[in-house]
Amino acid sequence: MIEFDSASAIAGGSATGSHLLHIEGYSHIQFLTEDKPIDSQPFDVGGRTWRIRCHPGGIHTLDFHQVVFFILLDDSIPEPAFAQVNLFLLDRAGNEMPASQIPFMRKYSFAGDGFGTFFMRQIVESPECLVNDSFRIRVEISVSTRVRTETRRTMSAAAAVAVPAAPLDLQRHLGDLFVAGEGADVTFLVAGETFRAHRCILAARSPVFKAELFEAMRQKSNDAAAEVCVRVYDVEPQVFNALLHFVYTDSLPPSEIMTDEPDVVTVQRLLEAADRYDMPRLKLVCEEKMCGCLLDTRTAATTLVLAHQHRCNRLKNACMEFLRCPQVLQAVMATDGFELIITSYPTLLKELISQVITAP
After folding, report:
1. Which PROSITE patterns does this UniProt record tie to the protein (predicted)?
2. What is the CATH number of the domain that holds 313?
């Protein structure tokens, strides 16, 4: 993580400052949660020292759809500091995305005091913001150097109001909506089975769904309420159901095939569907499962081809590492998957040979 471009100024009874973070190697840190935060270098605004703490994987398991940030006071001070914070996610051109704001003056009293905010993971991981496996955050802090009496009263009143934490049940509510199908306005026909869904939710989660569904709606009629029927080819019903479940809940369905040891073919097909509908997080989930427990001599060759076809570098590296063992490679060479590599992917075969030759 590289920090640069810190600046501050004092005007009108307040000190303002900004700090620009450049967070690199996102693919290596995106699963880090509460127990493994990433801290910025300290910086000064208003005579106080501050630090930014990032939880790329959220605070809790159910928060994985959020990239969480905390603005922390880094030093103890004789008097409280009152500060307002804005965070801006920058796109590749350096333009500010909508701010994530701590909307009113907060009281910072001791080292470690801080208040959190977040950006949705799908925005951070969008092509506009995630460039070369890195993204940038600009933080603005305004520290009051002259707090009026009425401001102090406002702060005391705000502190006296106990606001309960927001329940983490959005995924459950959307999952219930998917199961019930209430208000659904699109029907998918998949190998003789029918799935109903809500095109606005699909469009928000997948640019491919967005293009397909709204184009189909324009072709059918100008009625925004008209239901759309779409035929889906080359995807099995079981896989398409898992894809839709992930769209609504950001998790895999609690079925037998999606347990800790799922069926490798189903996960392979789900990864293909995730790539087809441009859902990078689902691709990562499938990669993680295949890297963790689904590599064996029967499936290693087909998994390597799949990773090569769909640009899954982490899975591809895991397959290469698995095949560097001579005994494993010899067993894999007897499979139909390895024959496919020989006949259809000569470049991949050369890469594999190179890896085996350089193996210790």
Report:
1. BTB (PS50097), MATH (PS50144)
2. 1.25.40.420
Cα separation, 285 vs 314, in Å, equals 12
Confidence grade of residue 164 (pLDDT, cut at 50, 70, 90)? low
The DSSP H or E segment spanning 251 is none
Written as six digits, the tokens of 123 are 């925005």
Q: Which residue has the tokens 């035929």?
A: 231
Tokens of 112: 């470690």
Same domain flag for 346 and 217: no
- Number of domains, the chain: 3
Residue 156 exposure: Cα atoms within 13 Å on the Cβ side: 7
- C-alpha–C-alpha distance, residues 306 and 313, integer Å: 11
CA distance 314 to 291: 8
If asked whether residues 29 and 109 sit together in one domain, one would say yes
- Chain centroid to Cα 93, Å, comes to 21
Spell out the residues 6+ positions from residue 204 whose beta carbon is closer than 8 angstroms to its own: 210
CB 139 within 8 A of CB 87: yes
**Interacting residues of 239 by C-beta distance below 8 A, sequence separation 6+:** 266, 269, 270, 273
pTM (2 d.p.): 0.52
Beta-bridge mates of residue 3: 21
The pLDDT, as a whole number, for residue 359 is 62
* d(C-alpha 5, C-alpha 18), whole Å: 8
Which pLDDT tens digit goes with each residue over 28-44? 877 776 667 788 888 88
94, burial (CB in 10 Å: exposed 0-12, middle 13-18, buried 19+): exposed
Residue type, 22: H
Do both 24 and 153 map to the same domain? yes
User: Residue 97 is encoded by which pair of tokens?
Assistant: 């995305």
Regarding whether 120 and 189 lie in a shared domain, the answer is no
- CA 177 – CA 248 distance, rounded (Å): 8
Nearest to 288 by CA among 59, 38, 31: 31
- DSSP letters for 273-290: HHHHTT-HHHHHHHHHHH
Q: How far is CA 209 from CA 65, 230, 246, in A?
A: 19, 11, 14
